[in-house]
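FW: tagging you since you asked about this chain on Friday. Here's the raw sequence from the shared folder, copied in full. Didn't touch anything.
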Amino acid sequence: MKPLAEQTVLITGSTDGLGRALAVELAHDGARLLLHGRDAGRLRDTEAEIRDHAGDTDLDTYVADFSNLDDVRNLAEQITGDLDRLDVLVNNAGIGTNLPGDGARMESRDGYELRFAVNYLAHFLLTRSLLPLLVGSAPARIVNVSSAGQAPIDFDDVMLERDYSGIQAYCQSKLAQVMFTFDLADELDRDAVTANSLHPATYMPTKIVAAAGVRRASSLEEGVAATLRLVADPDLHGVTSRYFDRQRESRAHPQADDAGARRRLRELSERLVQQPAPQP
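HL: got it, structure written out here
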């Protein structure tokens, strides 16, 4: 595995919380950074902060709204057009149980339940689109930032149209991330690209946690350390298809181990990302 100073790392959701703090840490280590956010102004602020902390950092920014799959497609096209290699993809962008919407059910631009779309489906599409670049950069890593808050997917009501709960929506989207991780790991040669997921820390001081009215239980530094380990620890070379609770290997919800459920999710996801957005 190459040292971080020779690696290119893409972090989705890098303008706040864990993603921003991870970017600062990686900049100190000399990595080339690709920062994603949905707001150009906040991306500029994040870039300025990183340059203040780490000096002349090799850094590029990309704007994309993950509630719009066309934006995700355009993001993947920009990155593949700009780069000849990508060593690490950190799928971190996400929304919580009640922000936005204050607990009400919301839909994405494509007509899908918003938390499922942003937390999971956008990353499914982005990762699948960037796989050739990752494989061509081997050895490479995919790190999916999930959560210990996981709930099984009801395949008869994935979009939660019958009985909506922000907690259910968030938790099923986070389990979907883990299921996707295991699927990827089965597909990829572990010597080329590894795929792992983690619960970085419990109730870090982030915007999502504050909006939920939950008391913080962990520091941001704890979450950064756990995530950075999956990004860069040479001892994890070839380690794949794992779910970590902070820095300890753990077990995800049992549905993640159900090959039939993972297949259903994969087939559903492939259909959803191929469907054109509804016309306004």
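FW: Residues 21 and 224 are 7 Å apart (CA to CA).
HL: agreed, and The chain has one domain: 67-274.
FW: great, closing this out.
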